[in-house]
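Retro notes (design track)

What went well: tokenization of the new backbones is finally stable.
What didn't: we kept losing track of which sequence belonged to which structure.
Fix going forward: every design gets posted as structure first, then sequence, in one message. First example under the new rule, 316 residues:
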């Protein structure tokens, strides 16, 4: 059953056909290369959603195994399972889900695997979160949530209370559209308090309107450092010549576009190694994921930037 209007979203679909289930969920999340297979349990599924464009509550029940890639979307998503197993960010910084424990999805595209699971999700529009953050005095010119951080007990308690409140209101068909909007804002505020933000400090000159093209390139690098990016790509994005792009980076950032990108990737690698399991993590594999194919040159660049070799960071 689907009841979707411009203002409200209400979906409730269920059944016993594996192909239909995979197609329904992949369509709901614009999934990439999703595959589904039955397990020893009798197969059934349910997908439900309620809310509006700014915030939706969703529930998934899936009596089988589901794998695939989740693309980078327009929402921040916090989810938790109540049954079964789940792994986020397969092949990279893997996160084993624990029943009842909220977990934010990575900021960029990631691979996943779920099996015989029940899942609850709160999805909040990214632009709404940015707007609310700006209202609260946060520098939102370029920031990312640290989805690997473990929220403290007080933030977790506030989040659970918020979810309880917005669930009751969102599921109430008699609730006014204005109240629904307020629930979205409340979810955004709670999300900002649940996970720390990784701010990108930009030079003052880069914030001037005349440098908007260059700033968009810098923000693009931070959002897409996991993707293959060339200097020519960045020049096209900014609408600048290669020479103008190089000069802009040198003048405002004191480096070249390639060196800046390499620094961002080294920072991401360090963040991964600081939180990784030393037994299960291979430094070379992490480096290759971020585009460093030559182990020796990578270690030297890492040591120059952070004052220690990556293996030491991992052990620490």
């Amino acid at each position: 059953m689907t009841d979707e209007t411009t203002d409200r979203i209400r979906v409730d679909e269920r059944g016993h056909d594996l192909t239909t289930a995979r197609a329904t969920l992949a369509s709901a999340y614009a999934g990439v290369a999703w595959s589904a297979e039955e397990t020893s349990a009798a197969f059934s599924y349910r997908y439900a959603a309620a809310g509006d464009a700014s915030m939706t509550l969703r529930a998934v029940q899936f009596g089988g195994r589901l794998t695939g890639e989740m693309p980078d979307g327009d929402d921040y998503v916090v989810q938790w399972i109540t049954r079964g197993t789940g792994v986020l960010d397969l092949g990279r910084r893997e996160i084993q889900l624990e029943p009842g424990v909220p977990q934010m999805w990575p900021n960029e595209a990631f691979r996943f695997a779920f099996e015989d699971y029940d899942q609850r999700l709160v999805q909040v529009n990214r632009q709404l979160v940015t707007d609310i953050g700006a209202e609260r005095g946060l520098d939102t010119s370029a920031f990312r949530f640290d989805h690997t951080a473990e929220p403290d007990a007080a933030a977790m308690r506030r989040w659970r209370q918020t979810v309880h409140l917005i669930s009751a209101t969102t599921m109430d068909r008699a609730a006014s559209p204005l109240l629904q909007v307020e629930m979205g804002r409340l979810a955004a505020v709670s999300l900002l308090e649940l996970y720390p933000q990784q701010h990108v400090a930009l030079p003052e000159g880069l914030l001037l309107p005349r440098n908007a093209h260059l700033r968009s390139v810098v923000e693009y690098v931070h959002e897409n450092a996991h993707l293959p990016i060339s200097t020519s790509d960045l020049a096209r994005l900014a609408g600048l010549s290669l020479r103008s792009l190089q000069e802009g980076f040198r003048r405002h950032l004191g480096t070249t576009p390639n060196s800046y990108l390499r620094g961002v990737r080294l920072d991401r690698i360090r963040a991964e190694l600081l939180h990784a399991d030393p037994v299960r993590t291979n430094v070379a594999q992490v480096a290759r994921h971020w585009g460093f194919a030559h182990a020796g040159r990578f270690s030297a660049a890492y040591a120059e930037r952070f004052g220690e070799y990556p293996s030491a960071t991992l052990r620490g």
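Added context from the reviewer: Residues 1-6 have pLDDT under 50 and may be disordered.
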